[in-house]
């Protein structure tokens, strides 16, 4: 317990580090596979011969390039400005020459404008800095600073952080939750960030506290990262109302709404946002990035990416410049000859890349590569036997079995109206446990897209 | 005696309720034009929505009101239209037949697949996983969602996994337009024979790496027919408000991306277009 920012007694901090009795209901336990990389320190990755910076790296409007072809840019220089509120700017990840500005493929399958930067030979790590944002600045100024630094949620969704931190009128932020769960198998990005950048995290928390005026800070960490939890709680500054909570290992605990339930016991209402229960959730890597960039007025140029999986020879946690082509990354770390699948993000919620010509973006938290021999191929999909394993797994208590049958019969409107399809956040637990190999989450993703498209299309009666 | 009381009570009640129903029927009567039912029975009952109304009944109401002409129902036969026109005493109206057209010709014999997709056999499903395995980001994925959704059997997948629209059967209902995740279908009047069968926004070799019949944005068609065609976003844009009944633009197309769609369903490419004789699957790096 914390009163006026001072500790009540030493015993209470020890009590804090016990297992939280509460976690969310349901969930699954996929093999973690984190042992191979969680002891490896973060390494700086070399600059690729060409850096391809797509303008769509975040949710919202694409950034607008402000450089022209042939222009020389310095590392950290603004190369694209934000287009409105739901957008973030881009900064050059390397000093070099802008070679061309043209269409580049994205992980989502679409194309977007991209800036090709050819680094100068022997390009260094010096960074062009902007106007620092001090800790005493007003909340609006801090939010503006976060947008100007180009910071988005580094956990994978790449949602602009300043939009998330803006507390709507009439709402109060009680809890600031720092998400250090990292429940995705294979990924150790957040784990290494917590171990190596703890000072940045606490500076970041100070900025976030100022911006949200939250009363409490909860750092949620899964029990498989006990060393990170010990380090953070031992380093906690005495004047901050921080509580480090260790929760049992379970997937998908890192999902925003599940984490709120696990740490505070509140359930975010259907269709609601975390602020409806007075919470704001920020990823731990995002927090560290805020703490590192804002005091120097810098923009985000690189991020930590876990490169792992059975198909990779040199596994590790790398600090990769944003815009590094995926093909170059795989060459550097030595991928196997017969690559079968490359996941951008973790194997549960990540996207399987269909094109190796995409680049590392702000939302890439990991690259997991499987060779042809490492994957068990699903040869047959069996009918649903109504075993209920998916119902037991669904963290938001939907009925995936029923939804799956409806999806097969294309009853998409019924799914949305009566079975809360749009609350599904596609964690994939249902597909993971299904003994009949039914691709449930794939059906739901498809159905959600169709329902959204139908909602967007206005009913038309024309002459 | 008890029976008579019961009979009287129930009989009286029946009469009272019947009276109420009769009064309600008279008082709350809504006049509906009897012709609506007749016209509806003369419509094809496809409920496809091609006319712009949600179904055949609302269209029949609009017909009787005089808001629409019978020809707006493209599913109906010519005789059926004339019959409705004669019944309502109006002109059948002239409506040019419209059909769905596909802006892609990249079957698996000419377009590469970068990655193999394993999952739900549906274009929409494949498109969700980083846009699908096809090399071209805009190209047809070939699972035939459009074939499945078509109520009139107007779409068939050809030997190379590209849907072919039967002009005679297509009613321009627009279901395929809605279902295609790559937005390759559009509804056009059947007289639009000059057609760009490509949607790739890339130019030059970037297109040819992925597809042998894609538009490389060389601009020859726009040079040959400068008033008719302009190059927009690396694609020829045909201005159909001008006279487009000419085969001039297709003559010099090097890949056969701009074509002439014959009324018998054949596709005529220009004489300079690359001949495609491959029947098998095109491998990565082969084109």
UniProtKB/TrEMBL annotation, chain B:
Chain positions recorded as [4Fe-4S] cluster 3 binding sites: 150, 170, 173, 176
Gene3D superfamilies, sorted: 3.30.70.20, Electron transport complex subunit B, putative Fe-S cluster
InterPro entries on file: 4Fe-4S_dom (IPR007202), 4Fe4S_Fe-S-bd (IPR017896), 4Fe4S_Fe_S_CS (IPR017900), 4Fe4S_Ferredoxin_RnfB (IPR050395), Elect_transpt_cplx_RnfB/RsxB (IPR010207)
Cellular component aspect of the GO annotation: plasma membrane
Origin: domain of life: Bacteria
Alphabetic keyword roster: 4Fe-4S, Cell membrane, Electron transport, Iron, Iron-sulfur, Membrane, Metal-binding, Repeat, Translocase, Transport
Limits of the 4Fe-4S domain: 31-90
Record keyword Glycosyltransferase present: no
Cofactor(s) needed for function: [4Fe-4S] cluster
Start and end residues of each stretch annotated as Hydrophobic: 1-25
An individual GO BP term: electron transport chain
GO molecular function, one term: metal ion binding
Transmembrane feature ranges: none
Localization annotation: Cell membrane
Binding site for [4Fe-4S] cluster 2: 136, 140, 146, 180
Principal location listed in the UniProt entry: membrane
Protein family according to the UniProt entry: Belongs to the 4Fe4S bacterial-type ferredoxin family. RnfB subfamily.
Name assigned to this protein: Ion-translocating oxidoreductase complex subunit B
